[in-house]
Design goal:
The chain is an alpha+beta fold. It has 2 domains: 193 residues, BirA Bifunctional Protein, domain 2 (2-Layer Sandwich), CATH 3.30.930; 43 residues, Roll (SH3 type barrels). The protein has 6 helices and 13 strands. Strands 1, 2, 3, 4, 5, 6, 7 and 8 form an 8-stranded mixed β-sheet that branches. A 5-stranded antiparallel β-sheet has the order 12-11-10-9-13. Helix 2 crosses helix 5. The longest helix has 22 residues. It is globular, with a radius of gyration of 18 Å. The structure holds biotin. The site of biotin has 18 residues, from helix 1, strand 2, strand 4, strand 7 and strand 8.
Length: 245
């Protein structure tokens, strides 16, 4: 494995993408930055990461895990599960959940965001799995809006865990989850369901400028979310959950 570590980067995903397009990757690669000045999130989101944030990207060759590019949404969910389990294993008795597709929540606030992207070197696709975790972020001086929605691991853990321990735990679990998927070709839907923060709740799913409301019935084998409303039951594979009742 190659480790590409930096004191500061604009975005670890962007750095990974430029290594790929320059034909300079021999997978797997870990791109790591202590500080990230222009981190990107899903859609128009940003991920500003100063002190206390753990930000990194893992580049894999999808062929190593027999992944088709169409399976990218599943890779994103599987990554969420790996990160959830890694965080949970270090925290003990704390409720660590997944907000579809792949945000990790503690006490219903976001602790981790994941952005999976494809970048090609010529015709060959690579996957960039970007992960940002609030490990020792001090939100005390943040706006009320942010404090309502975000949490850091040190807000709930009695003693602080070294960020590198989280990093290693995540890498081990991610490799093992992707290996299990390669061998079984099955998304671990039941394990995901056990930690889904949305099942049984009424949610709003935004896609473009449209919001669809419905009772969440869980996540199916293809990684889609099932919403039930007066129009019936439908499965959605894209969009962002913007409301949880
Ligand atoms: C989201 O919650 O919308 C996804 C956030 C993803 C942030 C991580 S931090 C490391 C990697 N590099 C980026 O620019 N983004 C991802």
């Amino acid at each position: 494995a190659v480790i590409d570590a930096h004191e500061s980067l604009d975005s670890t995903n962007d750095r990974a993408k430029s290594l790929i397009s320059a034909g300079e990757v021999s997978t797997p690669v870990l791109v790591f930055a202590t500080r990230q000045t222009a981190g990107r999130g899903r859609g128009a989101n940003r991920w500003v990461a100063g002190s206390g944030s753990l930000t990194f990207s893992v580049v894999i060759d999808p062929a190593d895990f027999k992944l088709e590019t169409a399976e990218l949404p599943l890779v994103s969910l599987i990554t969420g599960l790996a990160v959830r389990d890694a965080i949970s294993s270090k925290l003990g008795d704390v409720c660590v959940q997944l907000k579809w597709p792949n945000d990790v929540l503690i006490n219903r606030k976001k602790v981790c965001g994941i952005l999976v992207e494809i970048e090609r070197a010529g015709a060959i696709p690579f996957l960039v799995i970007g992960i940002g975790i609030n490990v020792g972020v001090d939100f005390r001086n943040a706006s009320v809006e942010i404090r309502d929605r975000a949490i850091s691991l040190n807000d709930i853990a009695d003693q602080s865990v070294d960020p590198s321990e989280h990093l290693i735990e995540i890498l081990i679990r991610l490799e093992s989850e992707l290996g299990d998927y390669r061998d079984s070709r099955a998304f671990p839907r039941k394990r995901y369901a056990a930690h889904c923060a949305l099942t049984g709740r009424t949610v709003g799913l935004s896609s473009g400028d449209r919001v669809t409301y419905g009772l969440c019935r869980g996540v199916d084998d293809g990684g889609g979310i099932t919403l039930e409303n007066e129009a019936g039951s439908s499965v959605y594979y894209g969009g962002t959950i913007t409301h949880i009742a």
